[in-house]
């Protein structure tokens, strides 16, 4: 089937994933999280437990706040102002992870936890605003392809940055080839784990630059003129009313519960795969980067084919087939 044409607004919407997604791969899974668990906390088992607590806290905050934030923005109309604020906060949280140093030399452990929790919360909030813009960014017949393109771009940018970190910081001094620098770029010191820590600022700058197109080119809804306080108050009532009516909309209730378990299971596997590999199998930066590049490259293929499968089979059958292949 021929893919529907996507205009500049739809491409800009998809490009936001190019800007945002590297944090998940570089910081939450393959580079920074394993480093924090093994080097900063110092005990892989305790590191997994502590990082699990941080992610659990972020998840609880999102669970309590996201429905009301989404309902409030529905009433206010425009999404871009909220997305801009959340994106800025997200970039600050990413950058702050540079000071996650071992031996208590950097910020204290609780501050690292605050930064990771804040990054997780703002990342999820950005999903609320970003996902809700897809219906204005792309035509109805192109929604699946726009979504698949966003997933592919997000993973492609992650592969690009993983390869860059491998070439610029991990391989210098380890592999001696003409096209590899003799020492890590920017004078980073491997003894101080600077090649691991640099991915936080790198993701922050990447986000700040490539998030710009969505604010310039993607269509947004018109403002309704309702103030945030009023919208939040009415939004709370709307969410409560929706929950009360779920028994009358069994298909919606089943979808929400099923998606919760599906997303939670997938997130847990992704987050702890890197910490497990570093803590249990003793993998270092070089091995973690190689793992990230290989697995993320396949995710690019999945994103590009996902939109086609959605159009051909429908979303439910497409998801069932994709989960079956994973198993």
CATH topology: Growth Hormone, Chain: A
Q: In what range is the share of β-strand residues?
A: under 5%
Q: State the share of residues found in helices, binned by percent.
A: over 70%
Radius of gyration: 21 Å
Look at the structure and give the mean pLDDT.
81
**Structure summary, number of beta strands:** 0
Main pleated sheet: none
CATH architecture label name: Up-down Bundle
What is the H/E order?
A: HHHHHHHHHHHHHHH
Low-confidence blocks of residues: none
How many alpha or pi helices?
A: 15
CATH class: Mainly Alpha
Structural class: mainly alpha
Note the gap between the termini. 27 Å
Q: How many domain units? A: 1
Shape: globular
What does this structure look like?
The protein has 327 residues and is mainly α. The mean pLDDT is 81. The protein has helices spanning 8-20, 22-30, 32-40, 44-76, 80-96, 109-132, 134-137, 143-170, 194-197, 199-210, 212-217, 228-244, 250-279, 285-313, 315-326. It contains 15 helices and no strands. Helix 1 (8-20) packs parallel to helix 8 and helix 4 packs across helix 12. It has a single domain (8-326), classed as Up-down Bundle (Growth Hormone, Chain: A), CATH 1.20.1250. 76% of the residues lie in helices and 0% in strands.
């Amino acid at each position: 089937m021929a893919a529907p044409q996507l205009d500049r607004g739809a491409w800009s919407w998809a490009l936001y994933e190019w800007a945002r997604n590297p944090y998940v791969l570089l910081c939450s899974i393959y580079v920074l999280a394993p480093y924090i668990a093994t080097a900063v906390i110092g005990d892989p088992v305790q590191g997994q437990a502590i990082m699990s607590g941080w992610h659990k806290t972020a998840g609880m905050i999102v669970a309590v706040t996201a429905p009301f934030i989404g309902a409030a923005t529905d009433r206010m109309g425009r999404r871009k102002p909220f997305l801009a604020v959340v994106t800025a906060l997200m970039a600050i949280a990413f950058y702050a992870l540079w000071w996650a140093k071992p031996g208590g030399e950097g910020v204290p452990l609780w501050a690292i936890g605050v930064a990771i929790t804040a990054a997780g919360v703002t990342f999820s909030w950005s999903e609320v605003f970003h996902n809700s813009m897809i219906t204005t960014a792309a035509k109805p017949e192109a929604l699946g392809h726009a979504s698949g393109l966003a997933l592919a771009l997000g993973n492609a940018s992650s592969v690009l940055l993983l390869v860059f970190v491998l070439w610029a910081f991990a391989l210098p001094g380890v592999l001696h080839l003409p096209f590899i620098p003799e020492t890590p770029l920017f004078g980073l010191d491997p003894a101080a784990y600077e090649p691991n820590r640099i991915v936080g600022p790198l993701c922050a700058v990447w986000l700040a630059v490539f998030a710009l197109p969505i604010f310039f080119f993607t269509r947004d809804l018109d403002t309704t003129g309702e103030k945030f306080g009023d919208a939040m108050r009415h939004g709370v009532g709307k969410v409560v009313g929706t929950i009360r009516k779920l028994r009358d909309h069994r298909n919606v209730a089943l979808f929400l519960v099923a998606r919760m378990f599906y997303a939670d299971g997938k997130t847990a596997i992704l987050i702890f795969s890197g910490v497990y590999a570093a803590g249990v199998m003793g993998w270092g930066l070089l091995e973690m980067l190689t793992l990230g590049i290989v697995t993320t490259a396949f995710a690019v293929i999945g994103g590009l084919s996902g939109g086609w499968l959605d159009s051909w089979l429908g979303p439910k059958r497409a998801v069932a087939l994709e989960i079956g292949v994973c198993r």
